[in-house]
Structures are given as C-alpha cells and as structure tokens.
Amino acid sequence: MNTNIARPRFQAIAVAALAVAVVVGFAKTYYLKFLFDAPPLTQAARLHGIIATVWIALHYTQARLIEAHRVALHKRLGIFGACVAMVLAVQAIHLAIGSVAAGRAPAGRNPLQFLSVPLGTTAMFVLFVASAVALRRKREWHKRLMLLATMTLLMPAMGRLDIQIMAPLGLPRAWLAFVVTFGFVAWAWIHDWRQRRRVHPAYLVGGIVLLVSMWGRRWIGMTDAWTPIAQWLVS
Questions:
Q1: I need a surface site. Which of 11, 152, 198, 207 has the fewest CB within 10 A?
Q2: What percent of the chain has pLDDT over 90?
Q3: Interaxial angle between packed helices 43-67 and 71-101, expressed in degrees from 0 to 180 and rounded to the nearest 10
Q4: Which of 8-12, 111-115, 125-129, 211-215 has the lowest mean pLDDT?
Q5: What is the DSSP string of 78-109?
C-alpha cells in the first residue's frame, strides 16, 4: 500500500462538488447543449467555457497533489494556474462587454445595468486569486482563498439554471445563486469549526465579502452612476 497517497479530503471534495454544480448549471447552455434546443454559442462563449473548465480541473488537480504530498509539482503547476486565471479573467471581461454590446442579457434585465454582475463576479475572482497568490507561502490562507475564487463561478452557473427551485419558498430565481453559494460557504465554515474549533479568517471574512458582493453587484448596476460607466465600457 502506498502511504504517500492520502485519502481525498475537504479541498478536493469541495472542488469536485463545485465542479458538479457548475456543470449542472451550464448543462443546458454549454456542456450538454447538444441535447437541448439552445441558441448557438459565440466563439468567445465557447472559449470561455473551455478556460473555465480548465480552471476547475486544474484546481482539483492541485488539491489532489497536496494530498499526495507532491508540493514541488503543485508549485510548478501553480504558475500555469495563475496564467489560466489571468486569461480567464480577461476573457470574461471581453465576453461580458461584447454580450452587452450585442444587446444580450437575461430576460427582463437592462443589458447596461446587468453588466455590473459579470464584471463584479470577475472582480471577485481576481481578488481571491490575487490574494491567494500573494499568500502562497501561507498554506492555510492560500488554499482557502483559492476555494473562494472557484466559488465565484457559482453565480453565473446558477444564473443559467432554468428551474424554479425558489418559487415554492416565495423567492425570485435570483436567490438561487445566493442560496447555493451560501451553502458552500457555510460548508467551509462548518468544516473549519469541526477541525479547528474556529473558522479561519480567510473563510470568515472572504465568505462574507463574497456573499455581500453578490447583492452589491446587482445594486451597483441599478445606480445612476453606473450607466455612464457601462456605456463607456461598451463604446
């Protein structure tokens, strides 16, 4: 028996669960699009899906490498991961602005107002990844911030899920992304509490910032100050 390989632990399990949630969310419009009568994807949207998938797969691989005590390989692969994150962020901004310029937005939403949501999501992703890279020598901070970065993908994924889970609770569909994200954040908090009898500041502060930002992104888009900014970005 190889004692160098540890059993899957929280980080890898959590990333795997996030991957399932993202695949389910984007199943109809991306991963299983061939089974549905969904509108064709732009080249930019297809590329974005590929890069995001690579990010999640890479995050899972990195978590497994740490469990296997292959730290050197984890560090080398981390350089590639940082590059993937940068490309994903830049391409997400390009896709968001291009979609608004083409007049594409969720039903009932003003495209210029909605632009604050994907840009805000990208900003949170960049914030967590940049913080994780800066604190890469502090393992307990690094791994938690990376997990929070991947959690930011839940909002766009749940936004694509065309089911009315919130309706029986009397809540609008927009609440689904918040509820699912809160579930993952709470799971991380509970795990820390069970293992350490306290929640690590990265999860506590980062989780609160992530959850609050989900409503903040929508609120910013509804302000009068946002419209000229959005118009400038699109133009």
A1: 198
A2: 58
A3: 160
A4: 8-12
A5: HHHHHHHHHHHHHHHHHHHHHHHHTT--STT-
**pLDDT for position 111:** 86
Burial of 210 (0-12, 13-18, 19+ CB in 10 A): buried
Which of 18, 10, 57, 58 lies closest to 188, judged by CA? 10
Res 173: pLDDT: 67
The two three-digit tokens of residue 38, written as one number: 């969904």
Q: Using DSSP, state whether 115 is helix, strand or coil.
A: coil
pLDDT at residue 4 greater than cutoff 50: no
| Other beta carbons less than 10 A from residue 202's beta carbon | 24
CB atoms < 10 A from the CB of 30, how many? 21
pLDDT of residue 53: 95
Q: Where are the domains of the chain?
A: 10-234
pLDDT over 50 at 3, yes or no: no
Output the DSSP codes for 29-49: IIITGGGTTPPPPPHHHHHHH
Tell me the three state secondary structure of residue 64: helix
| Other beta carbons less than 10 A from residue 99's beta carbon | 19
